[in-house]
Amino acid sequence: MEDDIFDIEFESGGKKYKGWVNPSDKTDHNGLPNSFHVVLNDESFGHLSFNNATWTVSEERPSVLVQEVGSAIEKYFFGITK
Predict the structure, then answer these.
(1) What is the pLDDT of residue 81?
(2) For 16-45, what is each residue's pLDDT tens digit?
(3) Rounded to an integer, what distance in angstroms lies between the CA atom of residue 74 and that of residue 68?
(4) Residue 1: its pLDDT value, please?
(5) Counting beta carbons within 10 angstroms of the beta carbon of residue 61, is it exposed (0 to 12), middle (13 to 18) or buried (19 or more)?
(6) Where are the beta strands (DSSP E) in 1-82?
(7) What's the distance, Cα to Cα, between the start and end of the chain in Å?
């Protein structure tokens, strides 16, 4: 839903990233979204999901950046900072 969209912003590798995240309407057994559509710096980053204690994405992306986006999502949902 559009009301669930939230903004993210972080720096990685000396570059600033700004974008938004749209959580899936489908949820897991904990009530959390199964995946997240992410747009960074006005370009689609892909659909992130958390599986087997790691973040994965539907597109070919640098693993460090995938983890940074995952951390930004965790911060939004749980207040977790790494």
Answers:
(1) 60
(2) 999 999 999 998 887 889 999 999 999 999
(3) 10
(4) 47
(5) middle
(6) 6-12, 15-23, 36-40, 43-51, 54-57
(7) 28
The pTM of this model reads: 0.88
| CA pair distance 55, 40, nearest whole angstrom | 16
Measured at the alpha carbon of residue 32, what is the angle toward residues 39 and 10, in degrees to the nearest 5? 35
Whole-angstrom Cα distance, residue 43 to residue 6? 16
Q: What are 30's two structure tokens? A: 């904990």
How many angstroms separate the CA atoms of 25 and 31, rounded?
10
Q: Are 13 and 64 in contact (CB under 8 A)?
A: yes
Both tokens of 12, joined, read 């990685």
